[in-house]
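[Automated response] Your request has been received and processed.

Submitted sequence:
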Amino acid sequence: MSDRHSPGGQSLLFLTDEQLRKGIEAMFFAYRGFTADPDRILNKYGYGRAHHRALHFISRTPGTTVNNLLSILGVTKQSLNRVLRTLIEDELVESRIGKQDKRERNLFLTDKGAELEKELSNAQRERMRQAYREAGPDAVQGFRTVLEAMMDQDMRRHFNRMKDVEHE
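Generated structure:
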């Protein structure tokens, strides 16, 4: 195992409980900030964060299956069905019968769904853009590295698959 050091020469492998606690608290407060803008937008429509996550991942992988979305979101089938039913009834998501497997349902955003997803993403992109500018270029890669290291193996696989799709 390599002994990594910060630019100041301090070892990153031996963080104190206090340093970790501060990092955890920063994550909680950052998450509140990260979700605050979309929450205000979602609230206008009577939607919650589960709707936002579904819209986001359907947008990122058009034609994704319900089972794939279940795996990414880590929610129960009942919970996802409730969210999808609302999004379909409100004409934000379209469910199509699978071409290879007629039992599968492929999910796509409608124009209306894409518009809402863009509004939500723009709010979060702007917050991240500002934070990255304040933190500087070295912090951007470090932050992504930390986030990826915190992911469970399953989630990291999903994340890496999505990165692979970007490069195709």
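Summary generated for your ticket: The chain has a mean pLDDT of 88. Helices lie at 17-45, 49-60, 66-73, 77-89, 111-135, 137-150, 153-167.
If you did not submit this request, please reply to this message.
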